[in-house]
Prior knowledge:
The chain contains 2 helices and 9 strands; from the N terminus they run E-E-E-H-E-E-E-E-H-E-E. The chain is mainly beta. The longest helix is centred in the N-terminal third of the chain and has 7 residues.
Amino acid sequence: MGFTYARLGVSRREKGPWKVVRLLVDTGASYSMLPRRVLDQLGVRPRSRMSFRLADGRKVARDVAFVWTRYGKDVIPTRVIVGEPGDAALLGVVTLEELGLRIDPKTQRLRKVKVHLLVPVMSGLF
C-alpha cells in the first residue's frame, strides 16, 4: 500500500478565489490540516485553538480555522487545523465525509460515496 494524495481547492469564500493544495489523505486524522502560509495568502484567520494528540502520543495545540473546499463540482465549508512549519498538509476524515468521498481500497484513489449511511431512530430504542 502506498500513500494517497488529493488536490483540493481552498478558499476563504464560497465563490473563491481558489488555491489548489496537494494533501496527503489520512483516514487516521479527524480534521484536515493546511499550512499557515496558504491560509495567510487566502486571508483566512484562525477562529480558535484546540489540543490534539499525535500518533506518537504527544499533545500539541494548534489554531483552527474555517475554509471553503472544492473537489470536482462539490464545494463545502469545513474546519481545518492551521499547520505549523514541519506539519504535513492532510485531508482528514471530516472533510472527506463532508465532500462525500472515500478511498477505493483497490486503486487507492478517491471516489464518490454512492450510498450514505443513515441510522433511523426506531421507537423505543433511543
